[in-house]
Structure formats: structure tokens, C-alpha cells
Amino acid sequence: MPHIPLPEGIPGIRSLALQYPESGKYLYELVQILLRHESPLSEAERELIAAYVSYLNECEFCCKSHAAASRYLFADASGTVDLALHDYRSAPISDKLKSLLSIAGKVQADARTVTEEDVALARSFGAVDRDIHDTVLIAATFCMFNRYVDGLATLTPEDSQVYAEMGERMATKGYVVPEQK
Amino acid sequence: MAYIPLDESIPGIRSLLAYFPAIEPAMKGLMQTMMRQDRGLNKGERELIAAWVSHHNHCTACENIHGAVASHLLGWDEADYARMIKEKAGASPRLEALLALARQVTCNGKKVTPEQIAKAKALGCTDQEIHDTILIASMFCMFNRYIDGLGLTSRDTPESLKTRAQHLAEYGYGT
Lengths: 181, 175
Known about the structure:
The structure holds 2 protein chains of 2 kinds. Chain A is mostly helical. Chain A is built from 9 helices and no strands. Chain B is about 70% helix and about 0% strand.
């Protein structure tokens, strides 16, 4: 049960954006820009970073929904997502993405532990400034969303089909602020 | 030195917003909405939660500025602020219950317990205040990481902090 009254049957961040639309509007705008605006990282890769950080924060709702969006966007290579969440170091992803996921993990745990060497390693695999920037910002932003969603104990659906549909909607329509029906 | 080329003559998060202007409207809108209203929590209490979370995340740059804005708004001197941050001295039971929620959120949202929520409600905290506390705490878990993860260091001096804090306390984050 959520810690405060929220619209019934609506999961995660959607319930919060419906109940508190003033902040919800900006939160949706932020995630839409981070995950869909132009970036050297593909949408699938950015969704994977979001899912990975949510996995580390043990935020089931955010992890499952963003993993589903990432699977949809990786299309034929959708199996990559679960391999990367299980152990990104041995997953069939580029060295660049591995080094960025390592930075994302450090941002999640304690951002002060990111070092110049971590950044230099990512650059040696071809990462540019925006790759570094977007990785850190996505990781930081999901440390916010995960806490907001879990800190108020919002509804987490258990049915995996619900997440598959959510992932497809997120992948095809992006982040559109929910409206009261 | 930051890990990406920023105009570090611009203080704090603003150098990042200048680097990536696409997020500026959303970030400023979120800050204005959550930090610049007195419905339920007043502006000073909101800034105190920001400083409290930044303190526990060891993000000196964020703690310094938001601690200074909170102190300005709440009429505290440095010693008052230090006592509050270290011992919650001077906090009402209501504010203490909200700071306890923010502290849990800093670790992980799952750490907030129904008992803590019940305690805050018994002390008169409204749903809106509980919501705002948890969202502000979550927001600063983001800002602290954005700053520290990109290796930003504060160039503030005690004087520049005071001037900036006074400006933010009076005019907010929209400008």
C-alpha cells in the first residue's frame, strides 16, 4: 500500500504524476529529454543504463519497465538486456558501453568514486563528452526516480505482461505525462 | 577539474545546465515547483532538507549553497546550522520526523517504513508534506550525483556563497 493516497490501480511514477501533476510535468519532461533527445547513446542503450541503475537500487518497477523498453528497442538483440543486467562485463555489448555501465554503477553507489581513470578508459573505447555526461545524468536521475517511487511505496505490478506492454509504449510513444481520465 | 569541458566560472549545477541546455526548463521548473513554495513546508524547511540530504551524500558543493540558503531563510548563523545538521538541534518534532524520512530516502527509498510515516502523520505532517519531503530528498540524490559524478568542484568563497545564497533566497531558481 502506498504511504500516501494515490490513484488506485495505477503503478509507479504514473500514480505520482497523476496525484502531483505540478512536479509530474517536469519529471516526465526530464526523462523524455534524457532518454529520447539526441545523444551519441542509442535509446536502447540509455534505457539499459536506466534499468541497470534501477536494478542496483532494487527498484523493481523502474527496473522491469525500463528493461522492457530496452528489450523492445534492442529488437532482434533483445536478449542483450538480461545478459547485461545479470553481468554486463560478460554481456555481448561494446567495451564502450561496458565502461559506461561501470561509471553508472559508481554514480549509483557513491558518485565521488568516479575517477579520471574511469573516464579515460571510456574515452579509450571511443566515448565522447556527451556519452560521459549522459551516462552520469541518467544514472543520477534514476537514483531520484527510484527513491521517489519506492520512498512512497507506489504500486509495483507483478505480471510480466504488464511490463512488456509498458515497455512497448515507452519505446514507441516516449514519456507522455498521464492525464486524469 | 570537471571530466567534461564546462564553463566552470558558472557556479554549481548552472555550468551543467549551460553545457546541456535541453534540460534547463525541466530542471528549473522542478526546482521552482518544489523549493519555492510555502504550502505545507516553507522555503527554509525545503532548503534544509536539500542541505541535509547533500550533507549525508557528502556533496560539499550542494550542502554549502543550500545550507547557506536555508540559514538565510530561517535566520540562522553558522553555529545554528552546524548544530541542526549534526544533532537536529532546534528542529521541531514534526521537522525531525521529516528529516528522518529524508535520511532513509538518501540510503534507499525502500528504507522508509510505514511506522516512520505513521509517526510523521501523528505529529501533524500532511500527505503533501510527506510527498514533498520524499521528492526533494530524491531530487538531491540526483543533483549530488550529477555534480560529483562529473567531478565538479566548488569555486565558492565564503563571500561568494553568502551573496549567491541571498540571491537564491530572494529570487529563487527561475532566473
